[in-house]
Amino acid sequence: MRVELQRIVDAVAAHAGRPAVIEDRRQRVVVYSEQTGLVDEVRRASILRRQTAPEVIAWLRDFGIAEARAPVRTPARPELDLLPRLCVPVRHHDLLLGFVWFIDPDGTMADVDLAATGLLKELSLALYRENLLGELAAQSETEAAWTLLADSPDTRDQAVKALLEAGMIAADGPRTALVARLVAPGQRQPDERARIALEQSLVAARRRAGTREALHLVRHDHGVLLLPAEPAAGRPTPEVAARHLDDDLQHVTRSLGSVERTVVGVGRTRPRLADVVESYAEALHAARIGAQLPTLGRVVLWSGLGIYRVLARLGEQQLTVADVHPGLARLLHSPANQALLATLERYLDRAGNAHATAAELRLHRTTLYYRLQRIEELAGTDLKDGAERLCLHLALKLARLTGHHRPEE
């Protein structure tokens, strides 16, 4: 199939009298002719990486290339090192399959009539077959991979067997799950450009680990990477892989206004691929907690979450702050009490050490004691009671997790 596509792109380039690149509908490079003449950095990078940067996709799609039925001209954008282009959309029975791109630095290129030569029809049929085969293979892998995250152990064992028999993975063994989340402003769902950026970063991470060693999946609000945990030459550990994945996400989403920040959750390693669902559940919780609590950083390990591990599980049972400590819940409703709550949390984080708390908050000891006394009055509590301190501490951490307590804002 690629031989046929290569023949067509070479014929297209010869007809147009300049180099051509063919992309699929998601703007991943499929095939390209010999590249001569003026080439910008966008083309070099897309050929090298077989994909187009999300910020470039966003810029080009603003000109309607995904809806077009005729050639579209796109202007230069110097800050992206992008020269002017002529784009010819490729469709099969009105189904968008991809694009043919020509660089047109001086704007002198005439519209290319590929339909008249029969090349457009050849290309649409070839891309249709390529797309169909690719979609079937991707769907088969995705279905087997998602089955790994099913509840039934027997079903998961069958999924591992299917992946091994199809050659989608090289071997079974210890696996670690990573979950990547893109946090949109106002906690909205990421848009299509953000999801494309997420998948590109997961594919890059999978290549670093070994394509037949790792698996990746994309859902509507997060991406999953299932990595081999055993050390091997050139293969990063799951923690290092998580940092690399986050770096990739930072790079590809930097210009997307639909993404506020990124977070990668890391679960604990499990001995078999069929058991990785447990690591996935931990990584998913870690990513969700990290999305809610920016102070934890962009890479969040489930093993390092402490009390939040408990609260994440309890949160599934619809536990509220009022369930843990009704008095503290009352304080949370008033903005005037935020300084008191921040003081209380720091005091409890320091195991009730007044000297350390006052020094850290730069408060006079008398001021600290006044605030603690005021908290006791307003919340109806006694800070000398160990059980009360435990409930207050848990309630504060739960309030952070649910977004009701944000002292940093």
Report on the architecture of this protein.
With 409 residues, the protein is α+β, with helices and mostly antiparallel strands. The chain folds into 3 domains: 2-135, GAF domain (Beta-Lactamase), CATH 3.30.450; 172-305, Reverse transcriptase/Diguanylate cyclase domain (Alpha-Beta Plaits); 321-401, Arc Repressor Mutant, subunit A. Helix content is 49%, strand content 14%. The strands form 2 sheets. It has a 5-stranded antiparallel beta sheet. Strands 7-8-6-9-10 form a 5-stranded mixed beta sheet, with helices on both faces. A hairpin with a 4-residue loop joins strand 7 (215-218) and strand 8. It starts with a helix and ends in an 8-residue tail after the last helix. The model has no long low-confidence stretch (mean pLDDT 83).
Helix content: 40-55%
Order of helices and strands: HEEHHEEEHHHEHEEHEHEHHHHHHH
CATH architecture of the largest domain: 2-Layer Sandwich
Q: Please give the largest β-sheet.
A: 5 strands, antiparallel
Unreliable stretches (pLDDT < 50, length at least 5) are none
CATH superfamily of the largest domain: GAF domain
- CATH-assigned fold name of the largest domain: Beta-Lactamase
How is the largest sheet built, in terms of strand order?
A: 2-1-5-4-3
* The top level CATH class name of the largest domain: Alpha Beta
What is the domain tally?
3
Q: What would you call the shape?
A: elongated
- Distance from N terminus to C terminus (CA atoms, Å) equals 56 Å
Q: Number of helix segments? A: 16
Give the overall average pLDDT: 83
Which structural category do the helix and sheet elements fall into?
Answer: alpha+beta
- Strand portion: 5-15%
